[in-house]
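Preliminary data (for renewal application), magnesium ion complex.
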Amino acid sequence: MADDRHDTIESLLVEGRTYPPSAEFVAGARVTDRAMLEAADADPEGFWAGQAAELLTWFEPWHTVCEWDLPFATWFVGGKLNVSYNCLDRHVEAGAGDKVAYHWEGEPGDTRTITYAQLLDEVSRLANALKALGVEKGDRVNVYLGMVPELPMALLACARIGAVHSVVFGGFSADSLRDRINDAEAKVLITGDGAWRRGSVVPLKETADEALAECPTIEKVLVLQRTAHGVPMTEGRDVWWHDLVPAQSDDCPPEPMDAEDLLYLLYTSGTTAKPKGIMHTTGGYLTQVAFTHKYVFDLRPDDDVYWCAADVGWVTGHSYIVYGPLTNQTTSVMYEGSPDHPDKDRFWSIVAKYGVTILYLAPTAIRTFMKWGTEFPERHDMSSLRLLGSVGEPINPEAWVWYWEVIGGGRCPIVDTWWQTETGAIMLSPLPGLTTLKPGSATFPLPGIGADVVDTDGASVGVPGGGYLVLTRPWPSMLRGIWGDPERYRDTYWARFDGKYFAGDGVKRDDDGYFWLLGRVDDVMLVSGHNISTAEVEHALVGHHAVAEAAVVGKTDATSGQAVAAFVILKAGVEPSEALVGELRDHVGNAIGPIAKPKTILFTEDLPKTRSGKIMRRLLKDVSEDKALGDTTTLADPGVVESIKSRYLAQPGGDDE
Ligand code: ATP
Ligand code: MG
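Predicted structure:
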C-alpha cells in the first residue's frame, strides 16, 4: 500500500480516538438529536405503534400494540396487512412503478434492471404459479437458490399468498437442505439448475435431488434455469419455472394476513450449536425492519443506491436485501457471485458502476479485502459512497479503520450493527448523524430497544462494567419461537436470567456507556480465575503486523483451568517461526496482560468458518481438547478443520510459564 495511506491508518489507530459525525453528514441526516431516543424510552409501545402506522400500510388496524406473556410476545394484535403489498403494490399505486428496485449483476457480467412495477408483475405471476402447485396459506415453501432476482421474488410471492418461506443458503449441502426441509415439513421446493460462483456452476439441482430422496413432504419442485448445464427433471414432481410462471396471470390479490401470522422460518448460522429454526411473523417484523433500515442507514430513498452484500440465505439478506429496502422503496444493488471473480476488485467495480451510496458488509469480508490489499479498491472511483455498515461479528479496530480510510475515504460514518437471526432486525447500532463512533463498538441500543449488561445473577453491572448482554423488554421483530420446539426456545433464551432475553454474547460497557461486544459467552475463557474474552486476545493478535487473522479458544488445562490456544493466519509473505511464536505471545502479554498470553499458537492457512464467514470456535475447542468434532453441517469447508486437527495434534505441547 502507498506509504502515506499506511501512515494515515497507523495514525487513526491511536487508542481512544473517536469519530464524531461530520458537519456535512449531520446537515442532511435524519436523526441529529436525542428526541426520538427519549420519546421511545418514555413510551416504547407508543413509539413502535407510531412507526408501524407511519412506515406500513395496514388493511385493518390493530387493537393492542403488544401482549407480553413471557416468553411469548405478540405485536399489533388484530391488525391485518400483507408484506408483499407493503413492498410492492403501494409503491406502484403511488406512481413509483418505474423506480428501480434492483440493479442486479450476474457473476458472468450479465445484468438486469428490475423496476417496482416489473417486480410486482413477476411476484404476482409466481404467486399464482405457487397456487397452481397446490400451495395454500400457512404451507411451508423451501427456497434453495443462488443470488438471482428470483430469490427475492420467491420470498415475496410466498408472503403474497400467506405461505411461509424457509430459505436455505445455496451453498449448503444436501444433508443440510434435507434436514431443514423435513423440519419445516415443506410442501414445495423452489430451486434452480445451478448458480454461478467463482466462474463455476454450483450444482443446486443435483444437490436438491439428493436431499429430496429423503424428503417425504415435498410434492412439487419449481426449477429456475440459470446455468443451463442440463439437469435431470423428475416427471410429475419437477416443473421448469419458464414453463409455468410466465403463463400465469399477473393479477394475484395480496392475502390479508394477521399481524402475527408466520412470515418465515430461518435457521441460525450454527456458530455455537446445532442450528435453530427461528420463527418470524408479519407486522412487528416488518415494522422494525423498515424502521432500522431507514434510520440506521440514514436512508434517502430518492437519491440512495443501497447495497447489502450479504446472501439472502442469511437473516441479513431477508431483512436488509429484501424486506427493509423494498418497504422503504429503495433502489438496491444485488450481486450474484464471489468478490474475486474475475478479479479481486469486483465489489469496487460494482460500487463505481452503480454509484453505490450505502454499503453493508460483514467483517469477514472486510478482513479478506484487507488481506488482498488496497490496490484493488484504488482502481475505482468510490466517491459515491456516503455510509458504510458492518454486521455479523465484532469488527476489530484495525479492520474498522481500514474500512473507514480505504473504502470510505475517511468520509463515511460506519454503522456497526449488532443483532441476531433471533432479533430479526438491528438492535444496537450508531445513529450516524448523532453518535460519535468508536472503532469496534456497536455503541448503543436503538430507539425503543431495552438492553443491559448483567452479571451471573442477572443483576445489572452498571457503567462501566462487563458481563452478559440481555434484552430487557420485547421488541416488535423478536423471534416468536423455535419451530417445533417451544422448550428449546424457553431454555435457550429465557431460562438463564429471569424475565430477560439472553443473547448469548458477552459485552462490556466503557466509561461512556458504549457497548463493546466480546463474542459468545461460551467463548469466554477462565484462565487462573481471570475472565478473558476470545475477542480481546484475537484483537491483540491481529494488531501485530505479521497477523492477518486469528481465532482463540480456551482449552481445558490441568494447572490454570483453561489455557489460551491460538490459531493464527499470517499475512502473505510472512514465514512462521518459533521466534514469531514468542513475539506474538509477548505482544498479547503487553496488550492485555501476561495472563492472556496464548499457551499454544498454531500457524494455519485457514480457519473453520460457517458459510456466513464466522469462525467456529467450538470446533477449534474440540480440536484443542482432542474431542470428537460437534455439528459440522454449516461449515464452509470441512477439510479445513480436519487439517488443523492433524497438525495441532502433531505439534509439541506448548511451553508453560
Ligand atoms: P448460532 O446461533 O446457530 O450459534 P450465530 O449466532 O452465528 O449461530 P446469527 O444469528 O447469524 O447466528 O449471528 C448472530 C450473532 O452474530 C450474534 O449473537 C453475535 O455473536 C454476532 N454478531 C452479529 N453482529 C455483530 C456485531 N455487530 N458485533 C459483534 N457481534 C455480532
Ligand atoms: Mg446465535
